[in-house]
């Protein structure tokens, strides 16, 4: 739709298509705009796309191009229509609490694998912020292979994350594992993560697609790139285009690393889809000593960001301690990543406020 | 617990364990008992197992062995306690609407991949019954890689299945894909299926664990056997031991078949777990011509049953037509499987009614 | 070529094709015919096939069909021409020292993974024969991942095998790992084995293709079925169609078994190629307890034979002891396999001598 | 051994060890030293290591430390002794015709996948040199999955390569596929390549280990890192420590790329082994558009070099055209790689002559 299309214009297109037995899926990308009065970010719809499914001849007969508010009608043959680059040639920017993730920036997200205590979470958040990270990660719901492993603090963990955000000022991304928790989790955080084991939990994908918060969609450890984009399409179909894809390693026969980071996936996905792609160098390797080289590799392969585990005391971590960085590790990583980011002609993503100052200054 | 343990005995054990900070998970296996008066099957609890998690020394100090109703206290070191053979040395029998699945029988389940119309479903069910199948499979909720593929008829499909059961007399197994649907789906069918993409959807596992119907747990196409048993443990922990495992092919580099049936998984799992294991020769290969040889292979490798796709008109199927058997194919398969079953010293599983007659006669 | 085609006829076809810039590959299948005078088997060429590569229009213009000795000219589009079923619709029989491997029989091959001493080899051979095996396997050259592991006895091992054959009367199959050894190894044994690590050692494939002994071609543990048939094509192209394919497990993410037996490969290959296919249940699983169920599965999936490890004292074996069967295990396996073989409408393969008596009797 | 150990000292150690029933493997690293008189490089032995295998107690009783020329006796528990970092803590430098491959440099190797004609090879070599590559790659023996695909020009191709080297001045690496060709190939080129399909062709590994030229050992597409190092150990055991490892993608379920570049393998191997590691971004992805991002990723992950396909007319290439770079692509890659190399605190590897001038200037 055109940038100035009204809601009524959109409704009119949908009604017409449905009248012929077709289906219409409306997706909106939302841009956070910094409001200097409130000091908070306001959401503004930046893109509206309507995906149509139905008989091609019938749809063509509708002459949609002539309708008010319609910018362009395009026939798309790939199975992942809404997230495809064929459908939306410019690469997208997704905003998380004012922090952009997209083609001009590299966004550093850091935080503890699992929220354990207020003290540990606050310490980790300060480590993240001090090193230049601009999004805080932290798990309150942990899907674990064994039912006897630590499953996360649940809503208590979300309250800790929320308090830490108020204290430290970083937007939060956290995993959601059940449809019934989606609205509750969304009320606490800035971005919802779909974990690797839930990449084909289609009802969960649809639920996060409907809730109106950006989504971080991790690749299933056994998912092809095609299946991953299809999973994103499930979210987009429910009206949410603010999706960031995260490559986190695939399952192979190699046992020296927990999973095998598929570094090629970054450029391959960016060719097929307009969505941003980041990498998780912590979970893919499962080893602290690999986080730095894999982060570097991700940035120069074109990744739009990184999400890494940090912990004030990795040896005491309740989850994935062997891969968590210390404060010093993270600062070294951040320095190295910043150098490479500049070399790639990009900048490290800051909060909108600082971006503004930067541009003004 | 002892066979004659009362509910109060179970509660007493749980209360004592929890008083020390430990956790107690009560699981029950339910046997369907045919009631000649109502002509229906009544559920009877046949096994009660309480899994304990906590500090080993503290748990030992409780002297649980001395409590009323306690048959045996056993320390289990594997991570999948409740489903392990270490915990329950005899192989279990699970009953689905009066039909046993277990070590003495081979159970043939057949039906359409997807419920499309009442006519198609009834025709497929009659094909199944005529060939000797004793459980009807049929999908009403279809998790599909693409959001644009046929997703199943939903509750309408369940009503069709239910009507067909009344007409034909076969108990039904169907997939459930969302926590919020579990109770509704359970109200229509005899067994709930967890599909390959949801094997690590832990909230769904917990939901089917709590609803009191037998569960068919398909192996994730990328799941190790260890992870598969852990997924079963999630169900068992919520109190449900009536779990049947289904090997349906794993993802490998080979492209001649859709997935690679891991035939070794049958004996390997039977060594580790007391739960019954069946195979799905239709989805693993994805080719009609492989269904017969893989079914045979499954039976002689020790599988406790088979679940196969049939369709009255495979060419018109909305889902997985290339692998669906015709009526003639299914009869040939059934004959061959029956011969091999006898050779293995087992019998084809029939409904309790007929079993009774068989034993009486 | 026609059964009565003369060598000169074959040469004439080759000369004509080469004169136009094309290539011609002559392959022969050899049948062992029992000679009652010498008590030994004589080789007789049973099939001659000439594979042509070149410009299709030019080859058609040659009118080869009219040449003397030519039975049929056929255009083949698959990449594996000589071994394809398109090229040779009837399934082939390969004879190893008088023992058939083909569609009417199931051939049991057994023996020690590695030849260690004359005593151990003789004991294993007697175990094999007593249980009804009709081909003896035994390794003298062992390709091992580590250069510090036992590498086999080399030619000394071949002499032991040869002595044991004279003593026990079973033809021998053994692995060859180097081009320079092919002629020497072929002088001692009845069938040459190409191991999984050498499946794409193309110069070795060509060498065994030229030496005139039947070849057992194991599937590479990472090879697709397409690549496996291509490897067979390398052998066939050098003039040898007496190839038996052996499925021995592929590499997957599963760690409960050494490799994953791809049981589907048996019917899939039999559709694509006329060559016999056997399975190796010992190396695929790497566990003694899986040999019996996998052997059964192989037979009913249509395998033309089995090759299993036996050892008089598995605990002392220098190679793969954990998977070797004892004498009792092998007899149980043989009984079970014989029952299933009969059910499949086949017979256990015996030596030509006994076959003759059987047919005569 | 100490740097000044004499041949007699080495022999004395070997003799003593063998006298106790142990085995001793002598390996030498050779450094090319530029001789200003001849204008050519002379080989000088730079490291001598003797690997011992045998009874640990007996070996300890020998008191080898006291023998003349012995620098250090060390007990090594890993299976890959000679190539392990435990055994040789400093990372090694391997010289190819005067060009170093090691921890201080990044070496760019480029050339055609297959040598087709003198003109094409010369054009590709000039493209390589113009862009700053310092080693020329080119295949004369091509192991192809299909026997009907172009197999390379053989010795004729080697003569072309040799002529091009004289013309352009770049040392050459080429693949060898058969034991019987090793000496002949080594007489033409500066470095021998073992391809992915031959990584476990142990007799070929031993042959190149004995011939005294540096070896480029590609990882098997299905080989674990452990198996890859074991393959290197086979070469080292025959006396050759001048081995460069090359990660070229592993086989996974993903089909968007030909293979999956295992970028983690670079730092993982460098931790376990002292040998240099390079990557092949052309064969791993199989797509031209991935060569640049994967090359960058390799350099910042710590790779010691790159080997890439170039072709003057990729559309006409007889082998792997879709992945070959054009002249412009290669120059862009070279500029980008040089920037990243500097950032990593390394330099692009030049020929010894130029290195000398650089150091002198």
CATH superfamily of the largest domain in chain A: Aldolase class I
Helix content of chain A: 25-40%
Number of domains of chain A: 2
Q: Cα-atom Rg of chain A, whole angstroms?
A: 20 Å
Q: On the 0-100 scale, what is the average pLDDT of chain A? A: 88
Question: What tags apply to this protein structure?
Answer:
homotetramer; 361 residues; alpha/beta; TIM Barrel; 2 domains; nine-stranded parallel sheet; two-stranded antiparallel sheet; 12 helices; 13 strands; 35% helix; globular
Characterization of this structure:
The structure is a homotetramer. Chain A is an alpha/beta fold. Chain A folds into 2 domains: about 5-65, no CATH class; about 95-360, TIM Barrel, CATH 3.20.20.70. Chain A has 12 helices and 13 strands. Chain A has helices at about 5-20, 55-60, 120-130, 155-170, 180-190, 200-210, 225-235, 265-270, 280-285, 290-300, 325-345, 350-360; strands at about 25-35, 40-55, 95, 100, 105-110, 135, 170-175, 190-195, 215-220, 245, 275-280, 305-310, 345-350. In chain A, strands 5, 6, 7, 8, 9, 10, 11, 12 and 13 form a 9-stranded parallel sheet that branches. In chain A, strands 1-2 form a two-stranded antiparallel ribbon. In chain A, helix 8 links the parallel strand 10 and strand 11 (about 275-280). In chain A, helix 3 packs across helix 4. Chain A is globular and about 65 Å long. The model of chain A has no long low-confidence stretch (mean pLDDT about 90). The interface between A and D is large, with 37 and 37 residues.
């Amino acid at each position: 739709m055109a940038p100035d299309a009204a809601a009524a214009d959109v409704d009119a297109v949908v009604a017409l298509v449905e009248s012929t037995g077709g289906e219409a899926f409306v997706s909106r990308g939302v841009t956070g705009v910094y409001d200097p009065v409130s000091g908070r970010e306001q959401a503004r719809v930046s893109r509206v796309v309507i995906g149509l499914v139905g008989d091609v001849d019938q749809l063509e007969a509708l002459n949609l191009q002539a309708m008010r508010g319609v910018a362009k009608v395009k026939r798309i043959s790939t199975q992942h229509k809404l997230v495809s680059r064929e459908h939306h040639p410019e690469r997208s920017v997704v905003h998380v609490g004012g922090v952009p993730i997209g083609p001009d920036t590299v966004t550093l997200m850091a935080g503890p694998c699992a929220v354990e205590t207020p003290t540990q979470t606050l310490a980790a958040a300060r480590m993240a912020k001090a090193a230049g990270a601009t999004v805080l990660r932290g798990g309150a719901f942990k899907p674990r292979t064994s039912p006897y492993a630590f499953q996360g603090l649940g809503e208590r963990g979300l309250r800790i994350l929320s308090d830490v955000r108020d204290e430290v000022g970083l937007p939060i991304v956290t995993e959601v594992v059940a449809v019934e928790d989606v609205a509750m989790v969304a009320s606490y955080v800035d971005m919802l993560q779909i974990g690797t084991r839930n990449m084909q939990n289609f009802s969960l994908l649809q639920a996060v697609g409907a809730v109106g918060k950006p989504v971080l969609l991790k690749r299933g450890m056994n998912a092809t790139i095609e299946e991953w984009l299809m999973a994103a399409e499930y979210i987009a179909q429910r009206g949410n285009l603010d999706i960031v894809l995260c490559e986190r390693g695939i399952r192979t026969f190699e046992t020296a690393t927990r999973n095998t980071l598929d570094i090629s996936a970054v450029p391959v996905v960016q060719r097929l889809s307009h969505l941003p792609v980041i990498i998780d160098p912590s979970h893919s390797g499962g080893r602290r000593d690999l986080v730095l080289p894999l982060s570097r590799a991700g940035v120069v392969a074109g990744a739009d960001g990184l999400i890494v585990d940090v912990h004030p005391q990795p040896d005491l971590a309740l989850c994935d301690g062997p891969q968590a960085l210390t404060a010093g590790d993270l600062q070294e990583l951040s320095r190295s990543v910043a150098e490479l980011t500049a070399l790639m002609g990009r900048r490290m993503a800051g909060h909108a406020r600082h971006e503004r100052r930067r541009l003004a200054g």
